[in-house]
Amino acid sequence: MDAHPRLHTVRPPRADRAHDRDLPAAVHRAEVPSLFAPEKDRFITLAEEGSELLGYVGWNITAQTSGRLEMVAVHPDARRRGVARALCQSVIARLKERGVVVVHIGTGGDTFHAPARVLYESLGFIGHPTVDYARAL
Q1: Which residues does 4 contact at the CB level (< 8 Å), separation at least 6?
Q2: Assuming Cys at both sites, which of 18, 63, 89, 116 could form a disulfide with 107, CB separation 3.0 to 4.6 Å?
Q3: CA distance 4 to 29
Q4: What is the mean pLDDT of each run of 10 residues along the chain (137 residues)?
Q5: Is the CB of residue 27 less than 8 Å from the CB of residue 62?
């Protein structure tokens, strides 16, 4: 990988190129398109090497001075190479340029998401305990 993958915010990745293989493809087909709606201040930043998609992150402005990073996804072959860090740093800079003063990001509390939690904390995010309830119908 180049020292810095090419990062840009232009288009959503195709749902069939989503990279979190532990989630069903149907989840990505439903969620990925919803990340990109520029008219609603919802964008996607891509990391590419040549013509290969390494990863992406959805981001949005949730209030005039508040933003959120959504679904940081990196191809398994590109993990542990700084792609997620570069994506997050790029988006944080873009949000700051747009006047955002607080950025939020969420992730799972399970073992699979432990590397994400380490990354987010290294970027200065502070975890806040929350409880999410679910009920089968």
Answers
A1: 86
A2: 116
A3: 28
A4: 50 46 51 81 87 87 91 88 93 93 92 93 92 84
A5: no
